[in-house]
Write a structure and sequence with these properties.
three-stranded parallel β-sheet; 1 helix; mainly beta; about 0% helix; about 240 residues
């Protein structure tokens, strides 16, 4: 691949609009700029080598033919919507330097089936994996303390997920995960946000821990298959039946 079409300022790759096939980020680049590869429809693979520390917002957004991404452990920031709409991407491994999966980073990656997270990740940002309708293989490490709004909404292929380590499940975090069949809310969770599990029509059972203090409005709306709800505490505050509708 000819690197001459890449626009680089200092150590930042600003734009590479003609990128095609599989490319390697040029030596000396430490940052991939915002929208640097956005809508590069001929891009099929990218190797981000050691030395790169930041992938900018929407850097690879809507690269629909992108199938292979290798990210070096030197990367500490994957920007908002960095890979949004990369529908050809099937798997991704988050580098050990990244502790926060930012807002919409992999949203609408409908071909994504597998995500590998390490035990330094602490936050799954808002809508980080929303709309990843084929995502079925993801293990959340116990280091995660926050799963933000709509983080996994619409991940209809998820059948189970371990959520140890959390203190709160945010609004619509798992809404529309129709493949989920059972959920065990871990000890330590004190609040479940509004519509957190709304439209999880495959959910049949859920365990509520003693420490839970608040369940938001319509948290289990349209969970039409729910048959078993086991609660360990009588102190939980439920919205009224009328307000759940």
């Amino acid at each position: 691949m000819d690197n001459n079409s890449a626009i680089i300022s200092g150590t930042t790759l600003i734009k590479w609009s003609s990128a095609a096939g599989e490319i390697v980020i040029p030596k000396g680049v430490t940052e991939i700029g915002n929208s640097a590869f956005e809508n590069c429809l001929a891009l099929t693979g990218v190797i981000i080598p050691d030395g790169v520390t930041r992938i900018g917002h929407k850097a690879f957004a809507a690269c629909t033919e992108l199938k292979r991404v290798v990210i070096a452990d030197s990367v500490t920031i994957i920007g908002k919507e960095a890979f949004k709409g990369c529908t050809g991407l099937t798997s991704v491994a988050i580098p050990v330097g990244v502790t926060v999966i930012r807002e919409g980073a992999f949203s609408d990656c409908t071909g994504l089936t597998s995500v590998r997270l390490h035990d330094r990740v602490t936050v799954i940002g808002r809508g980080a994996f929303s709309g990843c309708s084929n995502l079925s293989d993801i293990s959340l490490p116990q280091s995660i303390t926050r799963i933000c709004e709509e983080a996994f909404s619409g991940c209809s292929a998820l059948t189970n997920i371990a959520i140890d380590g959390l203190t709160e499940i945010y609004q619509r975090a798992f809404a529309g995960c129709t493949g989920l069949t059972s959920v065990k809310i871990p000890d330590g969770v004190t609040a479940i946000g509004s519509e957190a599990f709304a439209d999880c029509s495959g959910l049949t059972s859920i365990n509520i821990p003693r420490c839970l203090q608040r369940i938001g409005k319509r948290a289990f709306r349209e969970c039409t298959g729910l048959r078993s709800l086991i609660m360990a505490s009588r102190s939980t505050s439920w919205p009224s039946r009328r307000r759940q509708r």
